[in-house]
Design a protein that fits this description.
CATH superfamily of the largest domain: Hypothetical Protein Pfu-838710-001
Strand content: 15-25%
CATH architecture of the largest domain: Beta Barrel
CATH topology of the largest domain: Hypothetical Protein Pfu-838710-001
Largest sheet: 8 strands, antiparallel, barrel
Radius of gyration: 25 Å
CATH class of the largest domain: Mainly Beta
Strand order of the largest sheet: 1-5-4-3-2-6-7-8
Number of strands: 9
Order of helices and strands: EHHEHEEEHHEEEHEHHHHHHHHHHH
Number of domains: 2
């Protein structure tokens, strides 16, 4: 099979935003009161979309979407066939090829694809003949056109409806800001104006990706790290952009998933994403313009809530269960005390998850995440990071920065004696691991693998002790039976010794 369709020809630039905590029934009325939209006329359309792929999901593998869209009601439908090629998969701001053609009815037209790059992938029509519907989207779209004095134009679209894949359905409620004229900066300006009135979350998942995830029952699954390819010809700035974008997307993707999922792994991966982002930001700091760095103060409450939820999850699901039989020892009274403790923990987890979701509804959080998305998009705007001006010393620069971090880990480990110093060693070991994993393409393989194994071992060794002591602290806060907490404290001290 040939390579994926290259991005060329017509291009769509849009910013996709989730709406945490929004009530679809009142959302439209709220948006109409937002100052940037209040005096602008809106239009509403009913859109029905059918997405196609082969049984092997060839199009998804190559990050291509092919759909038929019905505009209007069933009595007088207008059908459009749209081909979309891969955009950047790690940002709410996407730029991708788009070819839209009117077709007579609800059947795909190979003829309509002839003036697109489809032939580069499917010259003999084999893939086209294997296409069939995979999922559908049905939604009401309300559209505003925002025209600026500088002649830039942004289409703001509110989509409310559902995605259907076989018997599975999922709600759809999101904002799309599409650039019709002007620069991408205008998209962020309009988004920030909306963010002053309601909570927004940058979202890197398209409707096509949402449909595929629903079809495969992975919509509520945590997003794990997926370090990008890093050719040595990239400049330091371009490398920083690729690495930081992937990490930030892991963070925001899991924040979005937290709105619909109770899976503890989603919380864990959200925190991993943020820690990876912080670690890489420190590593690349000398190559970044310090004055342009966003202020992340608005995220502190959310990150604190996430941290406490993770501690509760670890205590309930990892630290305490292996100790149940040792404590109970076939004693019915102890079994009752243990059960009460676990019920109290479960209730605390439930309340803390609600606190996290409430924190996501703070407009300041969305505004901060939007500012970060824009900062990442602007990292190479000056051209310093363009591949055509590649930095020949990228590998040397990266290796020197990682070597410096490795020396910090060794020094901290050799001097650690207090709990605070040991905790710092663990933090540095995590930073070392995250950077080694993300920059693997640019580092000597054997040394990188050895240092990574050492960092994981150090992180795990110090983490077990920390988790046990943290679980005791949480249980004391919850008013757990004192004899039980003293038992756990003794076990933790024995483990530490």
């Amino acid at each position: 099979m040939k390579q994926a369709i290259p991005k060329a020809g017509p291009e769509e630039t849009e910013l996709k935003l989730a709406l945490p905590g929004a009530d679809p029934a009142t959302l439209l009325a709220r948006l109409k009161r937002v100052p940037v939209l209040a005096r602008r006329k809106s239009t509403t359309l009913h859109l029905h979309n059918i997405y196609f792929d082969t049984p092997e999901l060839v199009l998804r593998q190559q990050r291509i979407a092919l759909r038929l869209r019905r505009v209007g009601d069933e009595a007088k439908p207008q059908w459009l066939q749209t081909l979309k090629t891969a955009g950047r998969a790690d940002s709410a701001l996407s730029q991708r090829g788009e070819w839209e053609t009117p077709v007579p009815d609800a059947h795909l037209s190979l003829k309509a694809l002839r003036k697109t790059p489809w032939a580069d992938m499917d010259g003999d029509g084999t893939i086209f003949r294997a296409l069939s519907p995979v999922f559908e989207t049905n939604f009401e779209r309300t559209v505003w056109l925002v025209r600026r004095r500088d002649a830039s134009v942004v289409e703001v679209a509110l989509d409310i409806g559902q995605v259907r894949a076989g018997e599975r359905t999922a709600p759809l409620c999101e904002l799309e800001l599409e650039l019709k004229a002007g620069s991408a900066q205008t998209l962020f300006e309009v988004a920030q104006q909306i963010a002053t009135s309601m909570a927004l979350l940058p979202s890197a998942i398209s409707k096509a990706e949402r449909g595929y995830a629903l079809a495969q029952n992975t919509l509520a699954t945590a997003r794990r790290a997926a370090p990008p390819a890093l050719p040595s010809k990239l400049s330091v700035a371009a490398t920083a952009q690729r690495v930081l974008c992937e990490m930030f997307s892991q963070f925001t993707s899991n924040l979005n998933t937290l709105l619909i999922s109770d899976d503890p792994e989603v919380v864990h991966q959200a925190r991993v994403g943020w820690r990876r982002f912080k670690s890489a930001r420190r590593l690349f700091a000398p190559a970044l313009v310090r004055e342009a760095t966003p202020d992340w103060q608005a995220l502190h409450a959310l990150l604190s809530c996430l941290g406490k939820l993770r501690d509760l999850d670890v205590a309930m699901n990892e630290t305490l269960p292996p100790l149940a039989d040792v404590y109970i020892a076939a004693d019915p009274r102890r079994a009752e005390i243990w059960q009460q403790m676990m019920l109290g923990l479960a209730q605390a987890v439930h309340l803390q998850r609600k606190a996290v979701r409430y924190a996501l509804q703070d407009p300041d959080v969305g505004a901060c995440l939007l500012a970060t998305t824009q900062w990442l998009d602007d990292l190479t705007a000056s051209g310093a990071g363009a591949e055509s001006r590649a930095d020949a010393s990228l590998q040397r620069w990266t290796q020197q920065r990682v070597l410096r971090l490795h020396e910090q880990v060794k020094l901290a480990r050799n001097n650690a004696g207090t709990p605070e110093q040991l905790h710092r060693v663990r933090i540095l070991a995590k930073r070392m691991r995250y950077n080694l994993e993300s920059l693997e393409d640019l580092l000597p393989r054997k040394r990188s693998q050895r240092w990574r194994a050492q960092a994981i071992q150090l992180q795990s060794k110090l983490g077990d002790s920390r988790d046990a002591l943290q679980a005791i602290t949480l249980l004391v806060e919850l008013g757990t039976d004192r004899a039980l907490t003293e038992f756990l404290r003794g076990h933790a001290l024995g483990q530490k010794a």
